[in-house]
Amino acid sequence: MQRYFYTFVLMTSLLTFSLSPISAQFTEVSLESGIALQHTSAMLIGGGGAFFDYNNDGWLDIYLVGGNDDDGLFHNNGDGTFTNVAEMAGLESTSGYQTTGVITGDVDKDGYRDIFVTTWDTQPNLMLHNNGDGTFTEVGEEIGMGGVSFSMAASFGDYNLDGYLDLYVGNYIEENGGYTAENGFGHRCAANFFYVNQGDGTFEEVSEQYGMNNNGCALSVAFTDFDNDSDIDLLLANDFGEWVEPNALFENLYPVDFFANVSRQTGLNLEIYAMGIAVGDYNEDGLLDHYMTNIGHNPLLKNKGNYEFEEVAQVAGVDNTHSDTNPQTGNPLFATSWGAAFLDYNNDTYLDLFVSNGHIPAVQVIKNAENDPNKLFQNNQANGTFTDVSSIMGIDNTDICRGMAVGDYDNDGDMDILVVAITDPSRPSTVEDHILLFRNDNPPANWLKVELEGVTNNKQGMGSRVEVSVDGRTFIREIDGGSSHASHNSTIAHFGLGDYEMVDELKVRWLGGEEQVFTNIAANQLITIVEHEPNALEEHTAHILQLYSVPNPFEEKTQIHYFLPKPSIISLSIYDMTGRLVYQEAAIQQREGKQILEWTSSSTIASGVYFCRLTTDFGTASHRLVLER
Q: Cα separation of 210 and 191, whole Å?
């Protein structure tokens, strides 16, 4: 019988929440959270971010590429705020580079996440080695990554199952061939890099001998196991696909050191302006599906097995083809999509889809909209379709957005969304573009988070799968090595469980096929599963306090919704903006689970912003309330 090991996160932080529209369930909190960084690029391309825990303190930190400006490493303070520690972390080595994208992974298996940053033009890419003391050292060239190209995308994955992360880098335009009506785009693009980890701290570039030196204009790459054989394959999203090279899918032929191009066989050789990739089993059939972003129609490729995919975006309602009309002609204008990710944003058990949109100047045949809001598509629960809920969720921002990543940065059990909005130097100086951090404020529902720790496998278990079964249904999450657009999602597998309070079975299928299976796992906890860990089975309840207020704003009465992970004496206090106590609920003993308290404001309390603080035996949480009379 397999054995396993749990760890869990104690959330005792004071979270501050900002005013949002009454219907919105996401709140944009970047500036108040300390994420003050702009991404500038003369080419208006690139711009990525990554959720990862660089110092192993249990909180997701954020890395952001600055383009022509400095990159930022934002340390999560555990209270809803971040501090940019790039300078003290020694990241001055990124200054002077035009950075485009970022992924992170423990390439030397020392227990700390390293950072790989792509750059453009005549500059080498950067490998920032994590020294384990909060600092980083740039080592790219000395470990065998001296290749120079206009690099846009990267993904980590262990193709040969030796336990060390290898690295694929997607390169972009090498020679700009312009556009003509007769011949389309005449660009020449650089061949991609494939770096194999030698296990001694160095890498060898082997793209040509492994059949991986694709010279499409790559804007996104993703290692993913499309054929369910427990090794990682490679999916490429290429720009200008009709004229240069179409999208490509390479099948890993492990144990042979070679990849077979199965693009034509699978129908994934799409000739589009591909920008980003999302991977997820949205229809719960046990096969990973792929969503590709584009100028215009975004394909949703439903995996049918046996090397067959079906394009179903329009039927599913996620094609995102147009976003505005030309005011002169009335003709529709194309949407321009970049980053994308599948996530269960409302924890109802069904995978939803987020897409970051943003205008880029284009020739007339692909004329696109300047007003191009981001999209959040909610899964309509098992009928294969989605509904656009971007506006009512308050996430339809119209900045010029590029890369995006998802992760639970505040450890409250739901997925937050990071979006890189870039700065266009040609726009009026009054336009204040900045990075967007959307905190998820949806009402509580059950969830489970699973973090892998490889021993024989790579440290984060990238490429491995976590499967959760409940009530005859199975949900799959593949641990991401870098996808979206120039970005990297959290490698903690997140499952929304809705009303389910117990998981019937949890299965980890590691790269190589070994499985660990566990049963009867309680919801609302973060579990770390260590490969081969010989620890006894124990039951644990997550010490995570969730506090919500619905609706907000309110007129006289409001219900305070919260979740107690264990029985506790609770006390509820309301403060005004000056810190003055305006209401105190008597301390009472309550059982674990979902709870509701109602506050009726007295007539002497004026309209304005107030803070509700919930104090328990194991921590506190806070929520901002808005009173309107």
A: 13
